[in-house]
Amino acid sequence: MTRRMTALLLTALMLALSGCGSLLDRDYRSVSRHISHTSDTEDTSALRAETYSGLVNDVQFFVSMGMEEGVVRLYRYSGDVERDLKTVCQELLTRDPLCAWALEDIQWSHSRIVSYDECVFSFSYRVDPARIPTIHNTVGTPAIRELLEAVLIQYDDSLLLQTSTYYASSDLLLNLTQEAYYAQPGSALGYPNVSVSIYPPDSSGSQHLVEIRLNYPLSRSRLLEQSQRVAAQAATMVGTSPAQGQVGYWLLYSRMAELDSYDPDGSASVYNALVDGGADSQGMALAYQYLCDQAGLTCLTVQGTLDGSPHWWNFVQAEDTWHHVDVTAGMSQEDFLFSDSTAELRYTWDAENYPECPDAEEAGSGNETAEGAQDSDLT
After folding, report:
1. Distances 99 to 67, 83, 178, 325 between C-alpha atoms, Å
2. Are 97 and 62 in contact (CB under 8 A)?
3. Which among 89, 152, 213, 225 could bridge 106 via Cys, Cβ 3.0 to 4.6 Å?
4. How confident is residue 13, by pLDDT bands cut at 50, 70 and 90?
5. What are 76-105's pLDDT values in tens digits?
6. Could you tell me which of 204, 201, 202, 205 has the C-alpha nearest to residue 101?
7. Contacts of 32 (CB under 8 A, 6+ apart)
8. Cis peptide bond prior to 200, omega within 30° of 0
């Protein structure tokens, strides 16, 4: 930091990362006003401040840049310097989202030099400071879920969010992670162990930093390799010109049956369903949804029970009518699609969260049949 302009440009980066207000009003808020970090005209390696809030902002700036040391010179400062330095360090460590997450401790020293007070800060980090630029400042469930989907596709092991207190909820973030995982069946190669840490840990303030950690059952390189093989297998099974309607659903259903991958005690991974064999109902249902997605066919995955045991299957929409499909059931071509009334004999599910699947008489007689589909091709 050798130029005044450099300090100002870096300030903009800090604001984008932290979203923190000052300690002047003892609250942390996302603010849009500009905070100036001015280099001392006599020494461009030091910042200068004249107020308590300026002192706080300068220390926040040092941390946002991952600096191990920083110098602030106080000019015309009217407060008790020793007392305020102690308060700044304590409150940043306990109430500032970024500092609470990143720092183990802040040490400081103070000396009077003619016309100013020189304050030297030393920072001990509990995390790698190189991770600070990876923090996403975001608000709202759609934006957070989009970030989670991007992380899950690449099998990254963490996500850092600066967000409002409302969205810094462990239950909410765990649910969003689950939704993001199941929304991308082609990448569903084993649900990770998910942990959520919130900084600061108490509920004070309107901003928090959230660290979501993801521990996958396999290494990242292995998962990326498997996802490529899943995509290649799906492309082969779907073809280049997918059939639509009940014909399309049946062709994908029958091709999954030919793989003979179902194992009630097997893996929930789509890789086992499409490539390696030994997939349970979850892996089979997610694989069927992935094939339908690739073919442009509407499909949902549902979790419920079959004969009282946990089970996964699918809902599909053909000719404006919804149907149940269970790729583990071994049904014939004539009845691989079935209605709610048939499903209720053995299956249970949360009907309020899924569309109604009427009987054929209720749905009308104009639906396309799957007759002859076995001799058709998707290409």
Report:
1. 12, 20, 29, 51
2. no
3. 89
4. very low
5. 999 999 999 999 999 999 999 999 999 999
6. 201
7. none
8. yes
Q: Residue 205's closest CA among 6, 65, 377, 23?
A: 23
pLDDT of residue 238: 95
Residue 95, helix vs strand vs coil? helix
More confident residue, 363 or 206: 206
* 106 and 71 Cβ atoms separated by less than 8 Å: no
Which residues are CB-contacts of 272 (< 8 A; sequence separation ≥ 6)? 261, 266, 278, 279, 283
- What are the counts of helices (DSSP H) followed by strands (DSSP E) for the chain? 12, 15
Q: Residue 45 — very low, low, confident or very high, per pLDDT cuts 50/70/90?
A: confident
- Rounded to a whole number, what is the distance in angstroms from the first to the last CA of the chain? 61
> Is the pLDDT at 218 greater than 90, yes or no?
yes
> Of 195-209, 273-287, 293-307, where does mean pLDDT reach its minimum?
195-209
Residue for token pair 């809902």: 315
Q: Round to whole Å and give the CA distance between 365 and 358.
A: 12
| Exposed/middle/buried for residue 148 (C-beta within 10 Å: 0-12, 13-18, 19+) | buried
Which residues are CB-neighbours of 312 under 8 A, at least 6 positions away? 280, 281, 282, 284, 285, 286, 301, 302, 303, 304
Q: Are 114 and 149 in contact (CB under 8 A)?
A: no
Q: Cα-flanking dihedrals φ and ψ of residue 310, to 5°?
A: -55, 140
Cβ count near 80 (within 10 Å): 10
pTM value is 0.81
The predicted pLDDT at position 289 comes to 98
Q: Could you tell me the two tokens for 364?
A: 């009308």
Beta bridge partners of 95: none
pLDDT digits (tens, 9 = 90+) for 142-172: 999 999 999 999 999 999 999 998 899 999 9
Cα–Cα distance between 254 and 237 in angstroms, integer?
Answer: 10
Condensed to tens digits (0 to 9), the pLDDT of residues 192-201 reads 999 999 999 8
Looking at residue 327, what is its pLDDT? 96
What are the tokens at 205? 């303030």
- Segment (H or E) for 184: none
Residue with tokens 């892996």: 283
Q: In whole angstroms, what is the distance from residue 191 CA to residue 178 CA? A: 8
253, two tokens: 């259903």
